Amino acid sequence: MSRYWSPLVHRLTPYVPGEQPKLPRLIKLNTNENPFPPSPRVVAAISDELANSAEALRLYPDPNADRLKEAIAARYATAGISGRQVFVGNGSDEVLAHTFAALLNHLSPILFPDITYSFYPVYCALYDIDYRTVPLNEQFEICLDDYRQPNGGIIFANPNAPTGGLLSLPAIENLLAAWQDSVVVIDEAYIDFGGESAIPLVNRFPNLLVVHTLSKSRSLAGLRVGYAVGNEELIEALERVKNSFNSYPLDRLALVGAIAALADERHFEKTRRAVIDSREQLRQDLLALGFEVLPSAANFIFVRHPRHDACEISVLLRQQGIIVRHFKLPRIEQFLRITIGTTAECQGLVAALSEILGQSLSPQ
Question: In angstroms, rounded to a whole number, what is the distance separating the alpha carbons of residues 74 and 129?
Fold first, then answer.
């Protein structure tokens, strides 16, 4: 620690991102990246932007990202979403950061699950926001009835991270109908892998904000594009914070790449389905090896073995060039979060685990 730091910095415990190791022949299943490349249209759009508008790189990008907002709104046109109801930022992490500052910083504590995205308490510390965690049940599920208590806002991921559990849209609708006095933020980073988005509820519930990212189902983690959808009053608050922080969060290449990705529904559906199919096959394979596998609607699974230590398994996997995520946290220290990879990567993982556990898969 430094005597030059502010008191705030001394209080912070920063978020720890998944490791990005530089190992040869690595099977990397620790950061929930999509195993498939983005749409070819993304590469073409970025190449065209560089070829045709290289001179424009000396100019700032559109601070309002109007074309991207309209492309996002068009995707939800049947829900009556307009471009004025869309906010964009440098990945959903920045969108969430502005959300905590703009909409969740009130006198009463906000609520979120005890096992969830570990950036939420980091934002609370950064913005001096009081919070209470609401325990998942014994099945590691979010129980929305437990959130019907006084609060300064509610936020949860759906599907939840790192557990992968999914809440139904009717359950979310019941919470929104019962609790309209504070903002409810639903972080839908993984919704495309098996859930139904709450965005169609936005125009019925003015306190609802839904946050998305193009990092997961659109394979654009390297471009850093996130967005939120809500009523215009909530979006205006986010814009005010953003324009007090950084008016140009998305560069020209990210803007054209994101628009191109959203335009290619065929590629999106093909790769999304491939991830879902791989997830279900990996689930069956790990069950055959004796793992407990929590239900998942995300591009990862959360597993534990009743007879083997999770940390030890992760170390032994690493020795074979396979990286998974282990959280040394209460209640989940015996779980591993495993990103869904390609078929070959998943098969490599299963083979390594079979060797580690000293058993083979049961015949299919």
Answer: 35
Could you say which architecture CATH assigns to the domain 40-264? 3-Layer(aba) Sandwich (3.40)
pTM above 0.85, yes or no: yes
Q: What is the dihedral of CA 31, 36, 39, 40, to 10 degrees?
A: 120
- Listed by start position, the domains of the chain span 7-38+266-357, 40-264
Residue closest to 324 by CA, chosen among 117, 121, 21:
21
**Which string of DSSP letters, residue by residue, matches 314-329?**
HHHHHHTTEEEEE---
As assigned by CATH, the class of the 7-38+266-357 domain is alpha beta
* Angle between helix 66-75 and 252-263 (nearest 10): 20
Per-residue pLDDT of the chain (364 residues; tens, 9 = 90+): 688 888 888 888 887 777 777 766 799 999 999 999 999 999 999 999 988 777 778 889 999 999 999 999 999 999 999 999 999 999 999 999 999 999 998 899 999 999 999 999 999 999 999 999 999 999 999 999 999 999 999 999 999 999 999 999 999 999 999 889 899 999 999 999 999 999 999 999 999 999 999 999 999 999 999 999 999 999 999 999 999 999 999 999 999 999 999 999 999 999 999 999 999 999 999 999 999 999 999 999 999 999 999 999 999 999 999 999 999 999 999 999 999 999 999 999 999 999 999 854 444 3
Cα(119)–Cα(271) distance, integer angstroms: 27
